[in-house]
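From the shared-data thread, chain only:
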Amino acid sequence: MRFRPTFFALTLAASLGSGCAAAQSTDQVLARLDLPPGYEIQVYAEVPDVRTLAVAEDLGLVFVGTAGGTLKTLADRDGDGRAEVVSTVASGLNAPHGIVYHDGFLYVAERHRVSRYDLRDFGGKLPAPQVLLDGLTDKSLHGRRMVVVGADGLLYVAVGTPCNICMPKGLEGSILRLPLTGGAPEIFARGIRNSVGLDIHPKTGVLYFTDNGADNLGDDLPPDELNAAPRSGLHFGFPYYAGGDTRMRIAADAKLLSEVVFPVVTFPAHNAPLGLHFYRGGSLPLAGDALVALHGSWNRSVPDGYRVVRVRFDDDGTAQAWEPFIDGFLDGRTVYGRPVDIKTHWDGSLLITDDYRDVVYRVTYTKPR
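Structure, as tokens:
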């Protein structure tokens, strides 16, 4: 297993005492992970700088966005549950974090723009992109965009606010939506600090998104969020509220505060909820529920997060509560992995990225006897 100590990884290792975890083999890490009965986890692929996933069943490929500015494809040609072919299909991109494949097109959200690639005659390299939206704030802080195609056939784009606590400017702190062919964006939702996870409830068609709370307010404030946006025009609190009713330092008029929409589920502060995914396969008993990747704290005196959790929904599509799904990426102050994104493979298994060990995991299920 190859582990490259970036500046952030070295800083994390120094603060959490995680150097020995990096030296452990992948098999040793897998053996210590705790999953519910019947679930198994293995490595699907090793991908440097791995972050996000988009599954293209008709192409037989999984697309990967990386922190290194590349887009890659993963191919499991022999069907053994591990992608033996990892190919780079584009490079030199500006943080291609948000990726989604839909009806023959790959949509890619970079820091400053959103584009799409026509893959209906895909030959192994991406064609020239069609730019759908340009001129987004090109700053590294909270600059990783996420995209999803809504039940209405429009493209939704999360745009973070490039600060800890401040007033968003322009399109910052919002979720935008626009036609799949491009055009003027509509601000669908406001009051968002840093959403790095979007998905659509498969039954209700409601947009859900994660949001990361502010730093420097203590170990336990504010809670991180899972939000529901059933219609346009809602305000989700930032920078006035965070994690529900935690008041921030910036004042607002009483009317706006009375209209703020609070999260449907909260997570402990600084857990950093990133990828959000409603399970859409048939082989795992997760139908109707969502999975969230808690990337883990970097600024908490007692580390927390570093797990994948399951958010249960009732039959009406209402979020209930979360529970651990995959644990064991953290032991005391020692970090073994940091989950980022989650997607359903066309065979019904789950794919989960880990940017600490540069791997994509595959989770399968066999009914316990």
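Confidence is low (pLDDT under 50) at residues 1-11.
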